[in-house]
Amino acid sequence: MVHGEEGTSVLSKYVDYRSDNTTILSVEQTKEKLLSLDYIQKELEDYKNGGTKPIVSEGF
Q: Nearest CA to 40 among 24, 25, 60?
């Protein structure tokens, strides 16, 4: 909840993150989700090519 300038209450338009309103992923689903991310793909490619430092220039 956020308070406006006048002290009135403004409710967030987003729903709170709770276990009853989210999908719980299995380990395999989590792996698939992570491997679908460009950032992870770039990190893995760098690792395969002998790189050791993380990509930080992209704002992560």
A: 60
